[in-house]
Amino acid sequence: MQDEHSDISFYGDNGPDLSRFPAFDIIRNVDLQTHAITWSENYYTHLGYPRHKVPANDQSWINPIFPPDKQMVVDSLNLAIREKQDIWTAEYRFLKASGEVIEITDRCFIFYDDQLKPVRLMGTMQDISSFTEALRRVQEVEEQYRNLFERASDAIVIHDVAGKLYKVNQAAADFSGYSRAEMLQMKVADFLLPSDLMSAPEAVQELRAGKTSYRVRRIRLRTGLHKIAEVSSRMLPDGKIQAILRDITDKTESDLALVASESRFRTLAEHAPVGIFETNLDGDIIYVNEKITEYTGASRDELMGQSWIKYIHKEDRDFIPEEWKILKDLLRDSRKQIRFIHKSGAIFWTQTKTIPLLGKNGEPEGFMGTVTDITAEKLALESLRHSEEKFRTLVEQASDGIFIGDKYGRIVMANSAACNLTQFSEEELLQKTIHELTDPEELKKHPFQFAAMMEPGGARSERKLILKNGTLLNVELSGRFLPDNERYIAFVHDITNRKKREDEIRLSNERFRLIATATNDMVWDWDIANNKTWWNDNFYIQMGYDRLEVDGNLNTWYDGLHPDDRDKTWTGLKKHWRIKINTGQLNTGL
């Protein structure tokens, strides 16, 4: 894959025709010798490139990389290949045929031949634009909440069930007369009269039931005086309680009733980052906040008096009337994921929560609910599910054993090759740690270096793996942490045959050296392929050469021959080679 950005050379076969694979992700297979590349169908359908205009080489991947990211991507892949990594991952931007820039997460397996030369690159490209947009929107919502909290004119405090304050805004400090630091050392009880504290358990029960608690409280100030505040409390997902206090000291009793029934609701609803609606018992809309008009594309005037069913996807409509009947009869809340239809025809997913509104006699008078757009999250989760399925498929097809474990060494996933290698089932492996599969004596001398696995190149070592039958197996273990730094992936390769060959070569060399040392003859060993020679000590003693004078190849022997004997000796030696080659006893290219 060579262009002005790359110094990589590729080798290998072209692999399967991935253009026929029905995959959610974009899959590519690169022949690293010929630069030929094949793409799955999604390359053309998702990115919009006409098949007949796409070059059948790796430039169809390199060229559309967003220019500011191209050098980073190529350098990263170069480094992975130079370091003989098995997996390369990267996140970068990619250009569609339309010119649209999308976010890509790229994960590839790099295959090498017996000489560790890279021969094939196979992996998936996943469009994570929706996911990153969803994250951005979540961050925006969090930022909006922080801005609302800090800039709100009403006092806002967050405390636990025991009353300990964890967070207060500046308006709360201004209201009480204490500094924010002082308030964080206090409890809710420090601000309430004993008579108001008596109703606190009842309010907590309402909050735990998922309701919003409304109370009028007398708040003790730093000056010793009191103010009357309307307190609206709700329980947050983490179990803490958020309370909003509005100073109503100067209000009349009728003003208090108005604030409780209207002002409080309107203020909160219009500033909420989610859609809020209210209907009558028949489901006809009687109130929506501004967010609902954004979701539907209809104005408030258009929505008033309309049924919600009109704006719900037809496949999600059937349960609505029956659901609201249950809400009315059982007085319980409802949580559903349903699809809404925008006025433009666009469809998006929402998370809705609906509760019945009770009148003075305790009978339901209508319904109130919230609507949150979760389209990006749904797409992100669906994309993540497909990505995990593709990853699992690639892992299952690998010939080497593959483990995924957490930072404590516990195994959380193992492929079929790992099960075959260890003789354990996947269920059995998931009950173990990588330490339990390794020879304990070896672990004492060479503990796992998890810190090294966080380096770009990961860590590689030779280990003895304990099989289910108790025997030890020589393996090469290479691992690195995944991008979340919470899990690692380890590749286990059986090196039994390699170790056997190494032992045989070592033993043969030891025998040869022993014989060469023990004999009184001059002994020499010529590595024909590399033209390297070795002489025993008798050669230097009898011939009088200094070791530094011998150049390490056959020249010393040839130059030492008498000129009259060189031709016949060399001819005889080459004739001996031909005899050995012809009889199949010598495997050499000479």
Question: Would you give an account of this structure?
Answer:
By secondary structure, this protein is of the alpha+beta class. The protein is built from 20 helices and 22 strands. A hairpin with a 5-residue loop joins β9 and β10 (241-247).
Architecture blueprint of SSEs:
Layout: E1 26-31, E2 37-39, H1 42-47, H2 59-62, H3 67-82, E3 87-95, E4 101-112, E5 118-127, H4 129-151, E6 155-159, E7 165-168, H5 170-176, H6 180-183, H7 194-197, H8 200-208, E8 213-220, E9 226-235, E10 241-247, H9 253-271, E11 275-280, E12 285-288, H10 290-296, H11 300-303, H12 319-330, E13 334-341, E14 347-358, E15 364-373, H13 375-397, E16 401-406, E17 411-414, H14 416-422, H15 426-429, H16 440-445, E18 459-466, E19 472-481, E20 487-494, H17 496-518, E21 524-527, E22 532-535, H18 537-543, H19 555-560, H20 563-582
Antiparallel strand pairs: 1-2, 1-5, 3-4, 4-5, 6-7, 6-10, 8-9, 9-10, 11-12, 11-15, 13-14, 14-15, 16-17, 16-20, 18-19, 19-20, 21-22
Helix pairs in contact: 4-13
Low-confidence stretches: 1-23, 581-590
Task: Please state roughly what percent of the residues sit in beta strands, choosing from under 5%, 5-15%, 15-25%, 25-35%, 35-45% or over 45%.
Answer: 25-35%
Question: Level of helix content?
Answer: 25-40%
What shape does the CA trace take?
Answer: elongated
The major beta sheet can be summarized as: 5 strands, antiparallel
Largest sheet, spatial ordering of strands: 2-1-5-4-3
Radius of gyration: 38 Å
Tags for this model:
590 residues, 36% helix, 5-stranded antiparallel beta sheet, elongated, alpha+beta, disordered N terminus
